[in-house]
Amino acid sequence: MVVFAGQGDARRSMALLWRTTRSKETRPGPKPGLSVDLIVDTAVAIADEEGMAALSMRAVGERLGRTAMALYTYVPSKSELVDLMYDRALAELSTHHNLEAGWRAAVTSWAGEAWEFYVRHPWVLQVSQARPVLGPNEYVMIEEATRILRETGLGAGVLRHVVGTLFCFVRGAAQTVAESRQAPVVTGVSDEEWWYARSALLAEVAPDFRERFPTLTWLDDEGAYRSQDETVPYLEQEGRDTFTTGLAILLDGIEATVGRTGA
Amino acid sequence: MVVFAGQGDARRSMALLWRTTRSKETRPGPKPGLSVDLIVDTAVAIADEEGMAALSMRAVGERLGRTAMALYTYVPSKSELVDLMYDRALAELSTHHNLEAGWRAAVTSWAGEAWEFYVRHPWVLQVSQARPVLGPNEYVMIEEATRILRETGLGAGVLRHVVGTLFCFVRGAAQTVAESRQAPVVTGVSDEEWWYARSALLAEVAPDFRERFPTLTWLDDEGAYRSQDETVPYLEQEGRDTFTTGLAILLDGIEATVGRTGA
DNA sequence: CCAAGTTAGTTTATGCCGTAAGGAGTGGCA
DNA sequence: TGCCACTCCTTACGGCATAAACTAACTTGG
């Protein structure tokens, strides 16, 4: 019998994601002290607090008072655990955005929520997008975005690409901020300290910066890099503004496309 | 004397990136058998061929006929090596896009080149963006994008966010394809095989899919998911189309903003 | 009620990883 | 010649995911 690589595991993994494993009422052997849900929640907590790099089977086990190996009774491997974490986290997103004020308002609200979600769970952005996890909540998220954007009246082909573009942008915009939040936790150095030290070194190492990078120098001279609000970390403010501006531009672009197609 | 965490290392790292280390003509000790350039090139080759996960100090050393520890004479740590790889790879990008045909054509050409670059070097997308590496070639890339988009006449503040948005989109759009290229190499399963197996499992595990996800079902019924060109892997074609469509939308949005600001 | 079989969890071990520490050989310069 | 900076090696440590074998708890068939 020929079995595709990983196909047997794929069945188990899908069953875990969609929770289709019907457990008999009573089973022989000792009572389970843990559960998939408990393990996934613990893993999410670690990733939220200490970053994806700190997520190890040992770390999860330790928080639950077990060894790393104990987890393998519930979860086939670490990568399956990450998939489960991903889909569990996505459950936070709300699913019924109001379309009464028009699609533009709804998209803005959806994108804002998604952006905040990614920033709250930076590790989510490290889960590969190419071959989707295909869990129920991922489908809910895509369904919701598509449902809203369908209101534009665009055809199915273009619509799919528009949804993809929106995802790319929101994820990318969130990534910058997510990483800037994670960095101080990992390195113990704040944005300001880091930037201060680095810009001094930059001047040292590239004394001809102004001549080599005239446009960036112009941007700097125009005061574009001056922070407005001192209470918010520099890179975070920057990322938030880029998201707001970029989203507006994207929506303008979609409107233009809608107008052109004549919906 | 108080030293900020990592600051001493930061100086050495910047010196390496900007190649400001003046090496004396003759030095005591055995002739170096390797060089930073050689090591970085080898590391890039490994990452290109086998993915970032396969990049280890041992692997790089082995390709060069040395042990892993030999590399530490040239490079302070693996993370510094990754920074050097990143900046080296960026050197591939061309720097003088023609502005004669207008900024829209130039942006299209720049973005297309960047997209292909990311797809060619998928691992580049795994290098953190939050705290930039600040190498010379990264500055060249940002300078070039900013130089082109400055032609729109937008003010410095908005311009910075527009550049950021463009980067988010291009990186995000490339990531999907980059990962879909990497996946078969790592897992040994093609897109088609993978998708075929998974969609069968999906039907098994979620028999009520059509009712739960009406919009996605509509998209499917409209034939939006049917592949046009059988010679190109499915996910790759999908990603390429999303990039093209999304870029056009983004440019429309920028034009709208430019028109509104009255440039 | 007991033996068989199933399950939860442990210990132990394998083979990766980054890199610290220390030692061996190399070659320019005093 | 001896010193010393330098390259490169061996060894070692603590971390990682996880395979394999084991113990102990529990249900169930006889």
TrEMBL record, chains A, B:
It comes from the Bacteria. Residues 33-93 form the HTH tetR-type domain. Coiled coil: none annotated. Pfam families: TetR_C_1 (PF02909), TetR_N (PF00440). Keywords: DNA-binding, Transcription, Transcription regulation. Residues 56-75 bind DNA. This is TetR/AcrR family transcriptional regulator C-terminal domain-containing protein.
